[in-house]
């Protein structure tokens, strides 16, 4: 089972600044995932040609299940938090989870975050900037694989220091009653071994993923809890879009390996940072709207800050 997490920067390339839907489709085709977590995903946004990027990915990979959770609505110059009541055709932005295996249940989990603007110092700037982060969510599904059931959780945590750790701890509590084995993946905006130490989950891939050309940090992670074994070494792949590399690893359900398989940074020709615990039954959200059909609205990924414009990371 090939697992992939990819922050796609709404399909935009940092090389030419363009969103090319064929290039995005080629990237998904090259990654060839059985289960795919996407962050910074557009739907009906002018900047990405009005496309539903989740559906594009689903068609390319042959996904039988996919869900998109809108976390922001509007366009980058006028972002507001999604409410779950967006009309068809409304411009939205969020995260997605896709699978070639059937899913028995879905859950959308809202994550806590700062309610006011907070000072954040970004790379290359000497002074902190006051930012209002957008809402954050996680999307979970229980899939029926040939080897048995497995829970997969995709998320995009905040870039605000301290809050990203609090969100991960909150998420670990929220998924404690879900089927094991469990895979948790996404852009966690936490570097190196911090996610494993914070969550208590086992890292399945060790590779630099950001920035895309000469990565110096691993912000994207695939973690496991329960019997999961790495069957092929993980890889960090530079695709033809995004400012992150895609992170991929092949796994088998069964006795976990004693140590994670370290991964190398690869390059393909198809170019790419707390609150009450959630306690809802599968199919409902703990603190946000349930995913219904192929879409659901809740609250965010680490894309655009609520102050407007492009995401800092």
Mean pLDDT: 84
- Shape descriptor: globular
Helix/strand order, N-terminal first:
EHEHEEEEEEEEHEHEEEEEE
- Measured as a percent range, the helix fraction is 10-25%
Q: What's the quick description here?
A:
By secondary structure, the protein is mainly beta.
Q: Can you describe what's shown?
A:
The chain is 12% helix and 36% strand. The radius of gyration is 17 Å and the shape is globular. The protein is mainly beta. It has helices at 21-31, 53-61, 163-174, 194-199, and strands at 2-7, 35-43, 65-73, 80-81, 92-99, 103-111, 118-120, 129-131, 136-145, 148-156, 182-187, 202-203, 220-225, 228-240, 246-253, 264-271, 295-297. Mean pLDDT is 84; it is low at 257-313.
Throw out a few tags for this protein:
313 residues; mainly beta; 6-stranded mixed sheet; 4 helices; 17 strands
How does the SSE layout of this entry go?
Layout: E1 2-7, H1 21-31, E2 35-43, H2 53-61, E3 65-73, E4 80-81, E5 92-99, E6 103-111, E7 118-120, E8 129-131, E9 136-145, E10 148-156, H3 163-174, E11 182-187, H4 194-199, E12 202-203, E13 220-225, E14 228-240, E15 246-253, E16 264-271, E17 295-297
Parallel strand pairs: 1-2, 3-17, 10-11, 14-16
Antiparallel strand pairs: 1-15, 2-5, 3-4, 3-5, 6-9, 7-8, 9-10, 11-13, 12-13, 14-15
């Amino acid at each position: 089972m090939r697992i992939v997490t990819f922050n796609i920067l709404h399909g935009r390339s940092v090389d030419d600044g363009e969103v090319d839907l064929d290039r995005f489709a080629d990237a998904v085709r090259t990654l060839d995932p059985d289960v795919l977590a996407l962050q910074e995903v557009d739907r009906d946004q002018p900047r990405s040609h009005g496309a539903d990027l989740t559906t594009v990915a689903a068609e390319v990979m042959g996904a039988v299940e996919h869900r998109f959770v809108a976390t922001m609505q509007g366009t980058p110059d006028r972002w507001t938090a999604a409410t779950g009541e967006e009309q068809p055709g409304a411009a939205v932005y969020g995260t997605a989870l896709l699978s070639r295996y059937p899913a028995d249940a879905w859950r959308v989990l809202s994550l806590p975050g700062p309610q006011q603007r907070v000072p954040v110092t970004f790379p290359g700037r000497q002074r902190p900037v006051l930012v209002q982060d957008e809402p954050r969510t996680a999307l979970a599904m229980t899939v029926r694989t040939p080897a048995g059931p497995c829970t997969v959780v995709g998320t995009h945590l905040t870039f605000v220091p301290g809050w990203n750790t609090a969100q991960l701890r909150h998420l670990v509590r929220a998924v404690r009653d879900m089927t094991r084995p469990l895979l948790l993946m996404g852009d966690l905006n936490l570097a190196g071994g911090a996610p494993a130490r914070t969550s208590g989950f086992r890292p399945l891939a060790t590779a630099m993923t950001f920035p895309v050309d000469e990565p110096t940090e691993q912000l994207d992670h695939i973690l496991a809890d329960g019997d999961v074994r790495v069957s092929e070494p993980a890889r960090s792949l530079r695709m033809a879009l995004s400012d992150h590399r895609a992170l991929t690893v092949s796994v088998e359900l069964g006795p976990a390996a004693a140590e994670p398989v370290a991964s190398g940074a690869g390059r393909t020709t198809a170019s790419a940072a707390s609150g009450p615990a959630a306690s809802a039954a599968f199919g409902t959200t703990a603190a946000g709207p349930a995913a219904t059909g192929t879409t659901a609205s809740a609250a965010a990924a680490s894309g655009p800050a609520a102050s407007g414009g492009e995401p800092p990371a």
